[in-house]
Amino acid sequence: MIEHKNSNATKVCVSITRNPTLLELCFDISAEHGPSKFVIFSLLIPFVHRDGLADKPSALGITTGQQARDALLLIMQLSNRNESIAKYIVENTNFCPILATGLSALYSDLPHRLATNNDEWFILTKQEWSENPSLVQFMNSLQFCNDVIQIAHPIIGHHLLQFIYHGFLVPVLGPSIHQDLHEIPLKFSDLQHFSNTMDEVIAATAYLDLFIRTIYEPALLRVFLKFILCAKIDEMSLLDTLIQRISFTTKLGLVSLSLFYTLINLNCEDVMYRLIFMYLIPCRHVMCSQRRHITDVEIYGKNAEKFLTLRPSFANKTNDKDSNGTPQSKQVRVSFDQTDESNERYECSFGAYLEDAHFSIVRCRVACRCWTAPYDGEVPSSDTNIEENDFISLASSISSFNTDNNNSKKSGHISNQKQSINFGKNVAASNDSGIHVDGLEINSQLESQTKPTEESFQLPSWLANNQPIPEELLTKHSTMMNHSTYHYEQTDDDDIDYYQHPSSFYALSFIDFSGENEDTWSVNSSNTPNVHIRDEIKTCVETLHSCLSHFREMNEQPNEIDENIDDDIKTLVNELLDQVNSSIEKFQLDEVDSINIQLDFNLLNELLTKKLTFQEYLIVLDRLIDSKYLTKSTKTSDELYNEILLLVEQIEQYRTITITEHNHNTDVDNQYFSQFIINAQSNYSVMSFLQQSTSMDMSLIAINDLSNQIQSNIFTTSIQPQQTSINNGKPADIGPFLRTIFIKLENMLHNSLYVNLLLTGIISRLAHYPQPLLRSLLLNHSLVLETNVKSLFQILSNLKSKLEVVSQTFNDFNYLVELAHETLYQKEKAAKDLDGIQKRARSPSRTRSKSADPGKERVTKRSRILDFFRGRSRASERTDSNVKERDHSHVTLIDKTSMKFINIRENPQNPPTNEWDDPKTRNVAYCAVVFNQFLKELAAVTLEHSVQQFDDDKIFDDLPLTQLLL
Amino acid sequence: MEKNEYALDYILQAEYNLLRKQFIPGIIVIPSGKSNLIWNGVHFISQGPYEGGVFRFSILIPNTFPDGDCPQVYFSPSVYHPQINAQTGELDIKRYFPVWKRNGHHLWQVLRYIRRIFQKIEITNAINLDAAQLYEHDPGAFLLKVSECVNQSKDNIYIPDSLTSDDPHAIVFSPWNERLQAVQQHLLTGTKQAFDNIQGLSWMKPGVYQILTREDTLTSHQN
What we know:
The structure holds two protein chains of two kinds. By secondary structure, chain A is mainly alpha-helical. Chain A has 46 helices and six strands. Chain A has a two-stranded antiparallel sheet. Chain A has a two-stranded antiparallel sheet with strand order 3-4. In chain A, strands 5-6 form a two-stranded antiparallel ribbon. In chain A, α15 runs antiparallel to α45 (about 920-950) and α26 (about 535-555) crosses α32. Chain B is an alpha+beta fold. Chain B has two domains: about 5-155, Ubiquitin Conjugating Enzyme (Roll), CATH 3.10.110.10; about 180-215, no CATH class. Helices cover about 30% and strands about 10% of the residues of chain B. Chain B has helices spanning about 1-20, 105-120, 130-135, 140-155, 180-190, and strands spanning about 25-30, 40-45, 55-60, 70-75, 90. In chain B, strands 1-2-3-4-5 form a five-stranded antiparallel β-sheet. The interface between A and B is large, with 72 and 49 residues. Chain B: This is UBC core domain-containing protein. Chain B: Pfam families: UQ_con (PF00179).
């Protein structure tokens, strides 16, 4: 019945569209006849979110929901030509709010956990999401919103966008992404409720990524970007949170990386400005004298050559490859790709990289034609006043929200005024009433965190259950039509006229947390004079000290671990101290090079893995404070900072131990922990000062997700622009995003394969941008950066030497690299095969929704892996026997992890297969492969830039000419 | 080493791009279709004793470029000029670029030099001593020789250069015909930008460095 009605409605809509005079019958436009009505439209609305895909296919194979949506789209099209219809829809119907709340309802139905069996998953593909009915339903609705915004009258579009932003993104998607992960140590991830939160956040991030990839209507995308770039949730900038998560070593890090890849890949000026250019425009990252070199053009390929020279060469312990009589003892250094042909056969020629770089850069340059500024160091000039607002919102909401914190606490009201967008009349209305966000403040306490969003998100039951508007409401609606407003009573709430005033719609209270979050975020003036630095450090340390003792007190009764002080550990600590001291001495000897002192990695690792007690750390700290170097300049704060981080990690670890041993103690622990955080936060400005010297190896922390809590606090502070500083009172900085990415890159040897693929993918994608500010930073090795900004070259050459050192610990690292190549080749092949299957199975999609095209999406997903081994044609030339040999490992995408093993165990060759069995070893080998490819990629991009930067305007118009001459 | 073959290509392409930016009047030059180490060019002279001359030349670039020797310039056929070898047609380029400096010298400067020798004739250290002497002692006879050379070049304009006959990028002249009208029109009116299906995104206002400040409706985003 319903289907029939709907298809009839569709017919009516088609007729109306064809013959506008019919409209008069359905819709009384003239105002004189009293309230106008458009019954067909109103009747269709309830079916908007119906899917009926799987459960109720109609006779025609088209679903009820789809029919309703198609019919509505016809009306939308009509509204574009007829403003009075648009006005009617906006003012007298609940079309927009229903669409937006529908998204919220459908979103809350999405799986909170994405089932994946392997660690490599980082992006939702069309294939994956189309297997999930609730996700399909959501995507349909999102698609519908997209279409409506595209074809409807701008008034409707604006209205709908407002509702999506304030009714879906900020109150629903926001909290689900922004959930507090602070207190979820990695080791607890198997505990149900911790892993739930983590999974939810991972899923939410993946959803957001998917949405951004799917939306193609700029206005809708704009709202999503506004959400990502500007929104503050729980008083924290969402963007900051997302950036922080890049450094997570869990799957969340992976998902966050892929979200950023998607963002960067949009070629959107606003995104790039916000993430990168904003920080590069002041040119504080380069030496003053170097600023004029930003636009320099290096045409003789020196930079590319430089990249290629960074390719590592590995020493072969067992020199079995070249068995031409060279003595075994002699270490033969061979260049990476000259090692043997076997590597060569997986690697494509440099030409392939160049070709790839060529088209990618052309596409990027073309896309950037619509940008407003060249970002070449001159326009905008380095004196350009970067809007404070941006900095503040970027940094953390803390400073900007500190002032109105109290207000917002009480009224539960986020004002929208800061957002510079003028939304017109409707928006103004919603600004007045604002959004009630008491529910949005996710309490940092554990209990509230674990509350699933849907529990607290109240929608009318019919809406939530995806049912049409209840009959009684409809009857009420029709009877009340004379009043031209739409009243209805919600079952569990007071009489609220939701739809009469769009703004009052927001009064929906989503979550009602009883917990009161104490406002501990006090921020000192950002102008911290240098003279006070020392005192501040002391204060900070003292605070840490006090919380430690606090902690110790609490733990003394149940736990005696403290007492067992290991002598070994003492020596370790001493070593550490000595090292720090010696580096301090170096520094005092004016060896500027050693400013970036890095603590011995292994040593630290050892420290981390052994049970240290706090006592020892306190000793360390005391000695640090006592030693003279604290009185020295700001630069040594590195060490202290490292110490504090270590300490913090230690606390975490200690806590873990305590908890695992005394599960009943959790509460006490949490108590302690919040205490600690409070203290840490109050010393916020000190921390942020410390953070300034960013050269410290953040990877240390990243290694251990236990320290998430602290990490995020520190990150927050790090983002905040501090006035204290090194030159001109402004710190040399490249912004939190690049910094985080670079730090992650420094840690490449310890990253998983997929993190490295994504990470290098992001960096080379960034390198495609032609803007001199960014290009010079990434690709010009002769540009001299400020001392505390590490250049990409520096990082890469460090990695090269690290890799070379590590390779010597294996018997035959070249062979391991070869195995890694082989495995990756197999994976890629498997991915490609699956790709082929998918393409064949692809159902015809709507032509308009380009980004929903499965094939395309697939390409964007896999391109990184696919691109990595472009030498497929060469590889396929291998002997058949070789292929057969591998063939029975029969790999599928889903089961790649196991494939690694199968592949290797079946490998008939005798050399040290056992080395390969160690996951860490494999990882290093993969890293070597990725690193090598990455360098080639960068070299190709650099060469391509040297050619393309000349033709700024005219290059692209020679295509038609050739066509003409043919 | 695989890198080098590409490196040279890229260096030459960059040089060519630089050259295009120079808009050196009266000279067209294009790399040979067979090797990008050979650039074929034509110089149309609009003033001076050689006015009206249309001289073909090729630039031979050493494969060690830009670190090695100077490029060589050969006129084909040879031009009667004190600085040009009458037999081989080689222009003495060393007098201007004694040593090729990778950071100071570019190929477009070679083209500028080619243009210059026909405007201001110098006879010191001449290659073609006859021409130099004639220029110094009997300018009238020199000019006669020159105009002979110029006329010859004009007469031979439609005869394809034998050296570049099998080169797909060879510069070939043909009499004007209507068919070329469209091409001319196309060249003059400019062309539609290619790749206009690729659209980036920006909601920034020019000069206002703040994100998402505009609310324009952008054309559909494609990536």
